[in-house]
Amino acid sequence: MSRFGVEKACFDLREPSNEALFRDRRDEFLARYPLSTDERSAIARGDVGALLTRDVCYGALGELMRVFRYDVETYVTRLRASAGLPASQPQLDVLRARSAGRKRAG
Amino acid sequence: MSTLVAAMAVAHVPSHTAYPELAPADQLKRITAAWSSLRAKLAAAQPDIVVAISNDHFQNFFPVQPAFCVGTGEAYDMPGKAYAQRLKLETRSVAGGPAFAEHLLKVADGCRMPLAFSDDLTFNDEFSIPQRFLDPDNRMAWLPILTNCLNRNRPSPRTFFALGEVLAKATARDDAGRRVAVIATGGLSHDPLGPNWCLVDEAFDRRFLALLESGDTDALFAEFTPERILEPGKGGTPETLNWFAALGAVGAGARAEILCYEPVPAWATGVAYASWPLAGATSSQRPAA
Prior knowledge:
The complex is a heterodimer of chains A (106) and B (289).
Chain A lengths: L2 H10 L3 H9 L1 H5 L6 H9 L2 H5 L5 H10 L4 H11 L6 H17 L1
Helix pairs in contact in A: 1-6
Chain B lengths: L2 E8 L4 H4 L6 H21 L3 E7 L12 E4 L3 E4 L2 H7 L4 E4 L2 H13 L5 E3 L6 H10 L7 E6 L9 H16 L6 E7 L16 H13 L2 H7 L17 H10 L6 E8 L4 E8 L13
Parallel strand pairs in B: 1-8, 2-7, 2-8, 3-6
Antiparallel strand pairs in B: 1-10, 3-7, 4-5, 9-10
């Protein structure tokens, strides 16, 4: 396991040219980093839940959320399931209302 | 000798400038009133330098992660241009405090707490939001100290407290006769990008504030352990560590005045504002120019 490799790959996605490479030639992008097969697969699939269990920092997970264009409810639901936490309806309600409010505000 | 003239701790919620309307109107009114009160206190204290302590949000420090990094630059963009749109703030140049920063670095080394430093730092919400509300006319010099709250191997509450003690020593050992304000920013409970995103842990927040208000620093350390500080969500709650630095600057046993606490799930944060009364906190001690 290389938590550093996972975080480095995710943070490097902030660079538009890296994000473009990830979208177009994912294997080529991921080959740059010291990753296990499972880690490479998790990043390639945008499996934020799997990476959460590896204690990857949330900032890095957020980059995958952005690149994979997850809505916040989907993202949080995946994290909670992975962490063994039950879904929280009040949380989902707030997240939905927040997303709608942000969209309205522009 | 320089003097500590103000000590505060505040939230730095990005939604406050980006999406204020998401907060219920009554809460927004009380939060705005707290900022106004703190702004008046800070103005009355007439600081020559505002030492602001808050955490990096991975915009400066990955993969190298210092525990604490002192800004030694002459000036900074607040917020950095990459973050202005997100925060709905125009970027402006804010004066730094390089002379006091260099002095602080020397004193810290003498205290066996060597600090990292950089002239070239990028700022997101951690300083830009408090600077905008506390110094709207951009008249003050701000010396930023970036901390590690969000990455692993973060310093403990006691180490943050020790950072504040070093700042107090640096102030006391400074011959420039400066009036120094310290402002910690961040927290309280929140978990952006984490499983508890938009859940606020009121019990955590209220107990933390109660202990600050009581001045029971021993209980604060006993209850708010490094592990406890992660429980409401490590995506943001560890920013509460910055408050320990402000407390360290004023000293164990100091009683905080809590100006406002509002749990605002739509802002994804337990929002709190506090200050510590200080003897030198009025302009009456300022020598004639």
